[in-house]
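Support reply, case 0932

Customer input (verbatim):
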Amino acid sequence: IDRSLAIRLLDDLAYVTSYDRGLRILDISQPYDPRVVSPGIPGARKSFDLSISEERLALATDYGWALYQLSDRLNPRLLSTNRSYEFIYRVSVTGSQLLTMDPKGFTAFSIVDPEKPQSCFGVVMATSNCEYGEGGEFKRSGMEACGVCVGWDTP
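Our regenerated output:
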């Protein structure tokens, strides 16, 4: 698989992201003869990272992120997308939470309603907020919480 950036396994399927071809699904039940069973998923082109949790798949794409339902593992159904002005290079999904990482920090989203995700909080890792002593020693982190989530689903 050319220029592949991330791979996640789910039973006998491999979900592979690629900047050139987006998300592809391979049947790896015969490891020495893998077959592409889904050559392209709508909204998944130029994918950089992916995460799979239960029946959901999240992708970091060139425009932000996309969330899919995996009830049919060969035909993920697009639930929602979120545009970002920053390059999202990592994504993680678990239960009702989705996290993204970009050059400035990370953002958390509530996906209690996966078709209407809500931004909950972000943490900005900015060097301008770091403090250093007179000798240049580090004194305080530049991480700041930037919001509060309303409706975060906690178990």
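We compared this against your earlier run and they match. Two observations from our side: The two ends are 39 Å apart (CA to CA). Confidence is low (pLDDT under 50) at residues 126-130, 137-155. Please reopen the case if you see a mismatch on your end.
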